[in-house]
Design brief:
- The chain is built from 16 helices and 13 strands.
- The strands form three sheets. A six-stranded mixed sheet has the order 8-9-10-11-13-12, with helices on both faces. The protein has a five-stranded parallel sheet with strand order 2-3-4-1-5, sandwiched between helices.
- The relative contact order is 0.12.
- Helix 8 packs across helix 14, helix 11 packs across helix 12 and helix 12 packs across helix 13.
- The chain folds into two domains: 120 residues, P-loop containing nucleotide triphosphate hydrolases (Rossmann fold); 268 residues, no CATH class.
Length: 400
């Protein structure tokens, strides 16, 4: 199943402006499939292949000299010396737009090499697993107008909410109709043994695995490095480094607090979210979609799903996600704020199928503090209807 990826449009725009375009993202998010379909006339080389990697490492000048036209270099971080030579090539030609398409799944190593050698010459785009909109073959909701009106044409998908959360969005699961838990178990093991071991150079993967699962139990919550370090049996410094690796690998993302204080003391710690609900369910040892109905973590999994869909909405347009949360020391909390300058759209997230009046209290509280009581606001919930209530646009989960 070859689904149209939203990022494809941004890729074409980028090659018209930059000599180098880099597509990074988690392993198995569809990077190779995307760039090979968009740039089907380009030469393609994978540096996962031992012979190609040896050639690139031993003779980078000769390796790059074999290409007389544009080329896709897959998993390019495997041969970091190439970056300096690529810089020389694109600097020698006045119009080298679209000359190199680079991909890589180790964002930490890849961006480090780009910042050192290719700054100003390279557009960097991030491809995450499928968005819900891509799976449903429709346009995603516009974050610029979210909260302003309801969507009357939203069609409910065949898969229900629990099955959607449990399955997750990695392309291979959907392309081949695989059992999510089996595939995710292999994916997780590969991630540990290849990416984590390469980046951190650690032998004790059991401790790191315990650290990830403890993070999974804290998805949707404020992250206390001291607490998770203590529970994992590691130092605060190690926990900070490991968390940065999870973030660079697109396993998690951290949601920072919004700076608007309205004269109140704010909580300053970030909230942690997993970027794929299926992987999160696997790490929490959830065995079936039905089990989600009885798990205390269901609300946090749903909140992670909503966050990841909004995150993809920005990333698929080549934008840095303008997402925050807001919480004051008295315990008032807005789950998410989409900050577009003006407007700033508060969003409340509820996994239940029933909407009650209490859900709107925090949204109105925040709008009153902001001094804009009639500003757009949104509630995203686990039900199926879309309507306006208490000056708030209510959206079902499948419109994202």
């Amino acid at each position: 199943m070859m689904l149209k990826r939203t990022l494809g449009k941004k890729l074409l725009e980028a090659v018209a402006k930059y000599p180098i375009v880099t597509v990074t993202g988690p392993r198995q998010s569809g990077k190779t499939t995307l760039v090979r379909s968009v740039f089907s006339s380009y030469k393609y080389i994978s540096l996962e292949l031992p012979d190609q990697r040896s050639f690139a490492l031993e003779d980078p000048r000769g390796f790059l000299g074999q290409f007389d036209g544009p080329v896709i270099l897959d998993e390019v971080q495997r041969a970091p010396d190439l970056f300096s030579y690529i810089q020389v090539i694109v600097d020698e030609y006045q119009d080298a737009r679209g000359r190199f398409i680079l991909t890589g799944s180790q964002n930490f190593l890849l961006l480090q090499s780009i910042s050192q050698s290719l700054a100003g010459r390279c557009a960097v785009l991030h491809l995450l697993p499928f968005s819900l909109a891509e799976l449903l073959k429709r346009e995603p909701i516009s974050v610029n107008t979210i909260g302003q009106s309801v969507l009357k044409k939203a069609v409910e998908p065949k898969k229900g909410l629990n099955e959607t959360l449990f399955t997750g969005f990695y392309p291979r699961i959907h392309d081949r109709n695989l059992t999510p838990n089996e595939w995710l178990a292999n994916y997780y093991q590969t991630y540990l043994e290849r990416d984590v071991r390469n980046i951190l150079n650690i032998g004790d993967l059991e401790t790191f695995s315990r650290f990830i699962r403890l993070c999974a139990g804290r998805s949707g919550q404020l992250i206390s490095l001291s607490a998770v370090a203590s529970d994992s049996g590691i130092s605060h410094t190690t926990a900070k480094r490991w968390l940065s690796v999870l973030e660079a690998s697109f396993i998690i993302a951290l949601l920072r607090p919004h700076h608007e204080n309205f004269g109140k003391r704010l909580i300053k710690s970030p909230k942690l979210y997993f970027l794929d609900s299926g992987l999160l369910c696997y790490l929490l040892q959830i065995q079936s979609p039905k089990e989600l109905n009885h798990r205390a973590e269901r609300g946090a999994i749903f909140e992670s799903f909503v966050f990841s869909e909004l995150y993809k909405n920005f990333a698929n347009r080549g934008l840095q996600p303008s997402l925050y949360y807001w919480r004051d020391s008295a315990g008032h909390e807005v789950d998410m704020i989409v900050d577009l300058g003006i407007p700033r759209i508060p969003i409340e997230i509820k996994s239940g199928q029933t909407v009650v009046s209490d859900f709107f209290d925090i949204l109105q509280y925040w709008r009153e503090l902001w001094g804009k009581p009639d500003a757009p606001a949104a509630l995203i919930y686990g039900g199926n209807d879309s309507f306006m209530r208490s000056k708030t646009a209510v959206y079902p989960w499948f419109v994202l």
